[in-house]
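Transcriptional regulator: structure, please.
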Amino acid sequence: MNGGEYDNGQGAGQIGPILEKRRLEKGLSLKEVEQATKIRTRYLEGLEREDPTVLPDPVYARGFLKTYANFLGLDGESLSRELRDRRAPRRERQLSHEVPGTSDFDQPLITPGGVDGAERRRISGATVLTIALAVLVLAAVIGALYYVGSRSVGSGANDSEEPAVEREPDPAPSQKEEPAAEMTTGGGASDGAGKADDGDDAPETAPVTVRVAGAPAGLTISVDGAVALDQFAQPGFSQTFEAQNSVTVSTANAGAVEVEVDGQSVGRLGRYGQGATREFPVQPGG
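Here you go.
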């Protein structure tokens, strides 16, 4: 049996029996599975019975399912997606069943057709008046800005008019070429400094290292708000991410996940079998 056999055309309610059947085929008890996966027995029973009242939040429940299924040799990723896609239609069906039916007592005694027409005409007139007032206010603001801008341009032109000063011709034109050469040299240096400044505009980042030790764990890691990793990691897993603002780590087995931010260890995310989501802000260049 593989992970794809759960889709047998019988609809919802097949994930739990698949897990229980595979566990019994391997001759394992729930206690033995708990010791191996670090998932509490009540969560394992909730997955096999498909009882949402026992399971934690959906993101943690999918992580537990992926870990449990992979431990049994099933396709944990496919089963996790099936659980996620299955829950939304259930809620929609439940809401549709809860909508109360209408009866003859809910119908109005008088058809308010004339009232609706008068109300629409009154609302239409108010809307037209509001638009007209808005256009007038906008025109007045534009006119005031144009008036102030034209006066500012006129005053600036008057201030810039200065009497021309006659200059005597320079008897030694060769002496003027040397400052020009110096200005060219200075300009080249400034261009080099500008290029150097452009090189310093590259964004700075800080390293965040995530490791898995002691037991397997499902990981979802986001760097600066974008998902960078989503997989089931085995003990010995280690990967470093470069971030400008923050790194968020989500797992269903917090006791097996260690995090190191900019070379400093922050320890494990929690206890074995416990779901956790933590955000680690970084300070590049700090």
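Notes: Strands lie at 206-212, 217-223, 226-233, 238-243, 246-251, 257-261, 264-268, 276-281.
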